Structures are given as C-alpha cells and as structure tokens.
Sequence to fold (168 residues):
Amino acid sequence: MIKGNKVKHLNKKVGHRQAMLGNLVQSLFYHENITTTVAKAKVARQIAEKLITRARENQKATLSPAEKVHNLREAGKIITDKEILHKLFDDIAPRFATRPGGYTRILRVGQRISDASEMAVLQLVERKELAQLKDDRSKVRAARKAKSTKKPAEKKAAEPKEKKAKKK
Fold:
C-alpha cells in the first residue's frame, strides 16, 4: 500500500518530470505566459510560486549576503538559464513586492484538437505588457479629456460668428 504520495507523477520518470517542469517554469518567467495542459500547469504553478517567493525574500535588506547567495543557488537548481534567473530576481520579484501570494493564474482554454486534453494558459498576474497597456490607456484617456474640454470652447466661439452672418 502506497501512502503519503504527494507528487504528481504526470506519467513521467523523475528525471524527465523535473526537466520538463523546470523548462515550463523557465518559459513562464521568460514569456510571462505559456499554454500547456491543466495538470502540468497546476504542478508548474506550485514551483513558480515558490521560486517567486524565494526571490521576493531575497529583496529584504535584513538578509546576509550568504543567505542571498543561497536563495540564488536554490533557484538556480530549477532555472538553469542565468538570464532568466536574473530576470526573476531583478525584474519579476520587485513587481510582486506587495503581493502576499497568488503570483500566477491558470485560465482554461478548452481542449487540444489532437487528443482532447484540457489546455490552460499559465500566466503571471502582474505582467509587464499589462502595465504598459494600463499606462497607454491612461494617456489616451487623458488626451481624450483634454480634447473634449477644448471642443466646447471652440464651438462657443464659432457660434456667435454664424449668428452674425445670419442677421445680415
């Protein structure tokens, strides 16, 4: 009788599963948005959230340099690409500085055509693209408000001229 088995095996051997999940998490941090099966997304989400938490803890000023190096090396066991590792610690972790957890979301997108597997999109909650879109939207809204306030003033100035022309 097997008891206490908390690992989702995903029908893979240990080495293949660890490599696959590490690659999924690396892709998530690189693209900030990946499409995979629901089961893989749920397991990758756990790993990603733990790594983001470790990177957030590394931002604290109370940590000694040895503890910071330790956090970096522990994350480096899963994320083998140094560029992505530095992106996690320097770019992604500061974005989630105020968020206590829940750094990722899973959105179900239907079934894969070939084998009808349930597919999902795993994405970071606070993405750079979304922040840029919000900034762009606020600029557009401000420009629209500025234009709308200018137009009535121009119309008022134009209306008296038309009335004078009608009286003649």
